[in-house]
TrEMBL record:
Species the sequence originates in: Streptomyces acidicola
Span of domain 6-phosphogluconate dehydrogenase NADP-binding: 17-165
Protein name: NAD(P)-dependent oxidoreductase
Classification via InterPro entries: 6PGD_dom2, 6PGDH_NADP-bd, HIBADH-related, HIBADH-related_NP60_sf, NAD(P)-bd_dom_sf, RedAm-like_C
Gene3D superfamilies: N-(1-d-carboxylethyl)-l-norvaline Dehydrogenase, domain 2, NAD(P)-binding Rossmann-like Domain
SUPFAM superfamilies xref list: NAD(P)-binding Rossmann-fold domains
Keyword Membrane on entry: no
UniProtKB keywords: Oxidoreductase
Length: 304
């Protein structure tokens, strides 16, 4: 797009930014922006949480209205989207002409509804999903998924890139949240799996400090497992192909049975291993025992 005719010209010089929500993530973003020379106005429901970033140079707004009116770019880092309505609902008259970037976690449908709500008050809305913990904000490893108007992302790309590499998914405001929730589904189940495995090993006297290095090295190999036999992970899945030459549903299902039996004998919680076992049993019942373990996706897509 020709910048001369772009209603959202890209800004490379420091601009004023408002950050609402000062949990660990909001504080990390504020400090990163301040370090790059951006004036930052902050507001938090618990005012004392602003003390640290104010000492670092941020301006503490007395009210949400004052915070919103301080900047054209307003970044929200809250518990969920309802918190946005609770905070901004009474100051919606101040939103016109501003860009709201909500980096809070919630459902894709709620992000779409929020985009409509913001547009109704004259604001441009971008959904964001931050894919690193707070200590990694501003590092080379940080990245953030965005969806919504691409012009708004381009207008504020310079400031947003400071937080993490922007990865734009498309105009649908629900896409960034969908990617975020999908990634967290992998992350949270992996964490639960690590703790379940650590509990198993602890029952026979193996300490966590001994167990976790072994378990984490296995987790690191998942990418190699997914790439085995194909150059692009997921290509066979997209084609509906589940070749069982490397591993089968029956083989993996037997392993899931053994994990459930072992966990039962140890008196551990069975919620996670039984959920995994159910995926393989469903695929076997549907006649796919000889297919690759990826066949379990059918039951996930179409639960009984």
């Amino acid at each position: 797009m020709d910048e001369q005719h772009n209603p959202f010209p890209r800004q490379d010089s420091p601009v004023t930014v408002t950050v609402i929500g000062l949990g660990p993530m909001g504080q990390a973003m504020t400090r990163t922006l301040l370090a790059a020379g951006h004036p930052v106005t902050v507001w938090n429901r618990t005012a004392g949480r602003a003390d640290g970033v104010v000492a670092d140079g941020a301006t503490h707004a007395a009210t949400p209205a004052e915070a919103v009116e301080a900047s054209d770019l307003v970044i929200l880092s809250l518990t969920d989207y309802q918190a946005m309505y609770d905070i901004l609902g009474s100051v919606s008259g101040s939103l016109a002409g501003r860009t709201l970037i909500n980096l809070s976690s919630d459902t894709p449908d709620r992000t779409r509804a929020a985009s409509t709500w913001a547009a109704g008050h004259g604001a441009t809305f971008l959904t964001g999903g931050v894919m690193v913990p707070a200590p990694m904000i501003g590092t080379e490893a940080a990245y953030v998924y965005y969806s919504g108007p691409d012009e708004a992302l381009e207008r504020h790309r310079a400031a947003l890139t400071l937080l993490g590499t922007p990865k734009y998914l498309g105009e649908d405001p629900g896409l960034a949240q969908m990617m975020y929730q999908a990634a967290l589904a992998v992350f949270l189940t992996s964490l639960s799996g690590l703790m379940h495995a650590t509990a198993m090993l602890g029952s026979v006297g193996i300490k966590a400090r001994e167990a976790l290095p072994e378990l984490l090295s296995l987790a690191d190999s998942i990418g190699a497992i997914m790439r085995a036999g194909e150059e692009t992970p997921g290509a066979a899945l997209d084609a509906g192909e589940h070749p069982g030459d490397l591993s089968t549903v029956t083989m993996m299902g037997a392993t899931s049975d053994h994990i459930v039996d072992t966990s039962t004998s140890l008196g551990l919680d069975l919620a996670l291993p039984e959920a995994v076992q159910a995926h393989y049993r469903r695929a076997i019942e549907d006649g796919h025992g000889g297919d690759n373990w990826t066949r379990i996706i059918d039951g996930i897509r179409d639960p009984r």
